[in-house]
């Protein structure tokens, strides 16, 4: 089906509305609008790729979900809730998605089917909860759970990024200092030795050679840097690259405990929400495993799902997995005995979320001495390579 952009007059309110809808032809798009009570003014086919040219941010999706849940919970009809949220949404990409969902819902589609047309915006967890909420008549509760989960994810990601800001700034300072000394200070030392007819010490000669290369071929340095960064980005998007970086995050010193708790908390929280909404266990494991966003841990969840499918309890399937922390199967076991497995997984998620907060809070403090040592070695080494030869020249002149 094709996507059409339209401008039409609402037959009930007389207001001009804009949006998009999917149809086979322009004529069928116009017919669909008329059936929904609109008088079409302009309808044109959208060029391929323009609909998703601007991505919907996670923040916009969270705001939409919270507003939509509030309106549905207040008893507003589905169409009215979507229209109200669309009118209040400032983000143009998000508003266009909502308007497209609105048109499809008014055209007779279920909310799940309408959301499924935008899988680049709404992931499998989101869609599964919408589907379960529609089927059970608890859509408002599903949306509230979604909003709470996404808000927690965003808060956690923001904390991690905030903790990494300081190390990034220090590394940037190190790079700037090194470049400044190589481009400005080192050539002065070379000129000084040349004027005195002295031979440069080996270390200083190496620095001078590197500095001259950077000054003369700076564009090559930039191209090499861009090629390395571009290569790493492209590699990370391949299955091999993704697997490599997923393993790296789970084993890199200082960060592995943080990522391990992040993934376990994300799995337990997602599984809790899905089970509480009525999603079957095997579907829950499949969706929650993919939501972790780490192939290594996801594969271990798949192994657990295979055991559950063969009749084993979830706690046994999750036990003795390298990257599944002990509290998750322990709480799952308690939940299986009490019949409240979703609540118990939620408690496990809360424990790891609290531990994650503590680790994030101390991350900058733990990294600071390491960065100071690196800064001292790099800058101190360059200063030594520059100043020692100068002291040597001064001593020779005094003699």
State the secondary-structure class.
mainly alpha
Strand order of the largest sheet: 2-1-3
As for the CATH topology of the largest domain, it is: Receptor-associated Protein
Which range does the strand content fall in? Answer: 5-15%
Parts with pLDDT < 50 across at least 5 consecutive residues: 49-53
Globally, the shape reads: extended
Return the CATH architecture of the largest domain.
Answer: Up-down Bundle
Q: Helical proportion?
A: over 70%
So, the CATH homologous superfamily of the largest domain?
Type II secretion system (T2SS), domain F
Query: Count of helical segments?
Result: 16
User: How many extended strands?
Assistant: 3
Top keywords for this entry?
3 strands; Receptor-associated Protein; mainly alpha; 2 domains; about 400 residues; extended; three-stranded antiparallel beta sheet; 16 helices
Tell me what the structure shows.
With about 400 residues, the chain is mainly alpha-helical. It has two domains: about 1-50; about 165-399, Type II secretion system (T2SS), domain F (Receptor-associated Protein). The protein is built from 16 helices and three strands. It has helices at about 25-35, 60-75, 80-90, 90-105, 110-115, 125-135, 140-195, 200-215, 220-235, 240-250, 255-275, 280-290, 295-310, 315-320, 325-340, 340-399, and strands spanning about 1-10, 15-25, 40-45. It has a three-stranded antiparallel sheet with strand order 2-1-3. Helix 7 packs parallel to helix 16, helix 11 (about 255-275) packs antiparallel against helix 12 (about 280-290) and helix 12 runs antiparallel to helix 13 (about 295-310).
């Amino acid at each position: 089906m094709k996507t059409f952009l339209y401008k039409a007059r609402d037959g009930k309110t007389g207001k001009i509305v804009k949006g998009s809808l999917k149809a086979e032809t322009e004529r069928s798009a116009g017919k669909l609008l008329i059936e929904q009570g609109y008088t079409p003014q302009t309808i044109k086919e959208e060029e391929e790729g323009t609909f998703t040219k601007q991505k919907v941010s996670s923040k916009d999706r969270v705001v939409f979900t919270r507003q939509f849940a509030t309106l549905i919970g207040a008893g507003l009809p589905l169409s009215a809730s979507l229209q109200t949220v669309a009118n209040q949404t400032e983000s143009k990409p998000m508003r266009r998605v909502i308007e497209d969902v609105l048109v499809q819902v008014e055209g007779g589609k279920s909310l799940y089917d309408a959301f499924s047309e935008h899988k680049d915006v709404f992931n499998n967890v989101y869609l599964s909860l919408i589907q379960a909420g529609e089927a059970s008549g608890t859509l408002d509760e599903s949306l509230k759970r979604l909003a709470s989960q996404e808000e927690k994810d965003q808060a956690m990601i923001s904390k991690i990024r905030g903790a990494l800001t300081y190390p990034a700034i220090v590394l940037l300072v190190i790079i700037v200092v090194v470049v400044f000394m190589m481009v400005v200070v080192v050539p002065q030392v070379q000129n000084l030795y040349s004027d005195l007819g002295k031979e440069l010490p080996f270390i200083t000669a190496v620095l001078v050679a590197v500095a001259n290369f950077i000054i003369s071929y700076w564009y090559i340095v930039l191209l090499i840097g861009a090629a390395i960064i571009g290569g790493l980005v492209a590699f990370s998007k391949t299955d091999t690259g993704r697997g490599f970086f997923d393993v790296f995050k789970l084993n890199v010193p200082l960060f592995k405990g943080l990522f391990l708790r992040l993934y376990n908390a994300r799995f337990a929280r997602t599984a809790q929400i899905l089970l509480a909404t009525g999603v079957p266990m095997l579907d829950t494991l499949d969706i929650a495993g993919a939501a972790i966003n780490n192939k290594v841990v996801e594969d271990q969840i798949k192994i657990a799902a295979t055991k559950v499918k063969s009749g084993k309890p979830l706690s046994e399937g999750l036990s003795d997995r390298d990257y599944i922390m002990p509290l998750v199967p322990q709480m799952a076991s308690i939940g299986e005995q009490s019949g409240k497995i979703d609540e118990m997984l939620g408690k496990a998620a809360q424990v790891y979320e609290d531990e994650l907060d503590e680790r994030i809070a101390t991350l900058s403090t733990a990294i600071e001495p390491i960065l100071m040592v690196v800064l001292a070695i790099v800058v101190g080494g360059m200063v030594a390579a520059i100043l020692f030869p100068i002291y040597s020249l001064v001593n020779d002149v005094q003699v």
